[in-house]
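Practice problem: predict the structure.
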Amino acid sequence: MKSKSTHGSQPKRRWLAALGLAGALVLTACAGPEGEEPAGQGDQNQQAQGELTVSVISHGTAGDAFWNVVKNGAEAAGRDLGVQVEYAADGDPGAQARLIDNAVAQRVGGLVVSMANPDALAPSIRRAVQAGIPVITINSGEDRSAEFGALTHVGQNETVAGVQAGRAFADQGKRKLLCVIHEAGNIGLNQRCDGAREGFSGQVSNLQVDISNPTDVESRIRGAVQSDPSIDAVLTLNSQVAARAVSAIEAANSNAEVATFDLNADVVSAIKSGEVLFAVDQQQYLQGYLPVQFLKLYRDNANVVGGGRPVLTGPDLVEQDNVDRIGQYVERGTR
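Answer:
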């Protein structure tokens, strides 16, 4: 019995010794010679916890009131979340594509892109996705966003917003609507007019103008309402064009009333004075802020917001009954 017990204890002692040796090896592997992490693990943690750089590339132009609010939102998110935000804009689709290519070459941590002309941007966006750079699209191009490999789209549905504008005019008893498109090739603007046509109970016609030529914009709108006095509603798709429409209608002695997409200080004043009936606000501050937040969450926690569907920022209708409350935020550049 004694001999059996002795032999049984030897394997046990050998097993405990081996276990102690293995434990020491595990501790050494985890800590390294000076308590360091295993090779490669530190780099991964540093990448996950380091500063994230996000490039926001829009189709706007420098000084544009609308895009300045988008930029304000993106930069505010950067400050709040510790993200480096780089904003660039160009209204020319080819130049915008080159800005995207430059950001890809710099290996930014995330891209936010507005797609007014999706076909022109498709190769550049796809190169970003292939390079492993997460992309979120904003403002325009909702229907093509998933096709190009973007995580999600942030903006308003232009057709839905157009329907709301058309119905609001119909509720005012208007019968003939002129929808003013200020950028050729911008699919979102055509969708707005198509939606207005759907929501409006009367006739709708489109008028193409060039926003880069404000004098011509005003002249064309004035000519349209003069040649057809039955036009009693004018819908502009940009806050700057709205001011030109108001002047054009006054010069033509027309009874048509103006409403617009988007806000600025002039539109707020015009709504208060009754020169503009309402503004369809897509809350573009959110189009700058939310994508930066979403990319931070994606990098740090693998979150994908939206569940495969766009994240809508509008429309929100601004009229005389709520313009005082909202106008204060327009003045500070966040609406």
